[in-house]
From TrEMBL:
Residues 25-88 form the Lipopolysaccharide assembly protein A domain. The chain crosses the membrane at residues 9-28, 40-62. Keywords: Cell membrane, Membrane, Transmembrane, Transmembrane helix. GO terms for cellular component: plasma membrane. It comes from the Bacteria. It comes from Aquella oligotrophica. This is Lipopolysaccharide assembly protein A domain-containing protein.
Amino acid sequence: MQILKIIRILFRIAIFVLLLILAINNMQTTEFNFLGIYTLRLPLIVTLGIFTFAGVFIGMILNYSNNLSLKSELKKLRKELSQTQSKQNQPTSN
């Protein structure tokens, strides 16, 4: 188990170093125009980071709303199942 932890840590360090090199090599300024009204000048890596985090955030919100609907459906189905089981377990009188 210790070896896996060490490998994970080394992998994370390697990814961090690669992203750091990417950031240092992409410091040129880019312009982001929003509907021709607003222009934002940022380094390329910052622009990419903003849009990456925005995409992750939007994905998390959509996933959360999907999970809520699935949980409500699961609750409804469990209720139906318990009602069906209770009807089957009732003794029949002759």
